[in-house]
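Q: Here's a chain of 578 amino acids. Please give me its 3D structure as tokens.
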Amino acid sequence: MKKYGKIAVALSLSAVLAGTSAATGICATETNEKIKKDEMVYVLAGADGSVQKVIVSDWLKNVPGDATITDRSELVDIENVKGDESFTAGEDNALVWDAQGNDIYYQGTTDKELPVEIAVSYKLDGESISPEELVGKSGKVTIRFDYTNKQYEEVEIDGQKEKIYVPFAMLTGALLDDDTFTNAEVTNGKLIGDGAHTIAIGAAFPGLQEDLKIPEEEFEIPDYLEITGDAENFEPCMTVTFATNELINGLVSETDMDEADIEGALQESVGELLDAMDQLENGAGSLAAGAGDLDNGITSLQEGVTQLSDGLTELSGSNDSLNEGAAQVFETLLSTANEQIAASGLDVPELTIENYAETLDKVIATLNTDVKLGQAFGAIMGEGDAQADAAEEDNAQASVTEQQANAAGMQAKLAAAQEGIEALTELKASLDSYNTFYLGLQSYTAGVAKLGEGASNLKTGADDLKDGADQLSAGATQLYDGILTLTGGEAPQDKQEDNAAAKADTELSDSAESEEGSEGQGIKELLETAGTDFDGLTARLLAVKEVSENYQSFAGIDESMSGQVRFIYRTDSVNLSK
């Protein structure tokens, strides 16, 4: 590798790690009892990188719990996005927040010039073309991201004024559809494929070459990203770029070190990075193993759910036959009952499944009433017989023959009515018993049908879960392989055998390597020798670090605060519908 190459690689890795920690919300240890301003700048841009809107989100971390917070901001249309705390605007962009001990989250917009400008250009078969004109075209497409750093300070180095740019790391990602973009290659980046898409990821450090005064012929620090491939009916995709100036901040812990101390601190940082790479390898290996176990477990779940769904589907297929058969039996029972009731001479409406219970209850109630009336009449008739007997004893001239005949007829009718009540009561109990079975069968078949539907949905979900687990397992294996490739590590023997099959479906391809000396080398190998080639760089590194630490906010910050700022650029996609 050429002179200075190793330190540049170390800085590149630091940028990636700094970007990763920033993206996950990990930040430097806050100064005791000092308000911290965390700023995120969202840049909405056209497909060519032209800025359309800038939205800034600020978080004032009220560590000491102050009642009021004095901030400074150049934003307009400011609004509190998480609370009801208000502010009073003052001179020199001052904002005095009525914090009441709380953190403040606010948002606004600005047309201020960005510290780094992104220009996205396109070529079709070697000829420049606008993204709008490129839509639907086919051929060799080149997409280039150029980053121009405009944020600098003039710093004195060895008695001379030097222009030192804030050391931004620009991490850009683009998701390319393999159906429309094939044979992809990337300069200053890597390609990751999942079988359906290719993800191009690149890192650039605009201004760092000038900051460190490293001759390009000895080592070129990337300040652009270029993606090429064969396109068919191409549509420029959305891209996202994450920008941070934190790569230098963590390399040296003190600003008043001499050059020897700085070199030692850098070497110590390299050692920490090596430890971090070991942890990254171990974590990725555990993720790959766990994803494989999860995939196997979900396969068993999928098989069980499939059997359950198939069984319930087969069972629910008999529901209609069961219900129809039960209804036919019920209709037969009611038909027989109707015939018996008619033969008994009772005038009863035809019994059906819906009305039998109510109809029989009414008939039984009516017969009960008749029996009670007859019994009362019989009692009266008996009393009349007694009176007649007395009169006869007194030689009275009255005939009771007709009364006795009526009483006998009434007794016969009462006996028949009582028998009818008993028969109808027994009939209703029998029909009620079958009706309970009939309704229970309907509930059972409805439950089977509903359970079958749920099992079918569960099977669909299990299938989807299995697909996701397959992708997770393949992706985790791919990530592990990629990390090993990146770090220069080596997988355990059993993991190498497991990974062989996964590689048939997924492949992580490296981008073009450096022209000289880095082919086949992992970051570990480079880092292990990175701390020895610092001739003339320490003073500039210290200056770059100082400028980076000074840049704490894009939209403004009060001098009483400490801060950090990050940027997310999003470029629009362009398609035929636009």
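Q: Can you summarize the key feature?
A: The first strand starts at residue 36 and ends at 45.
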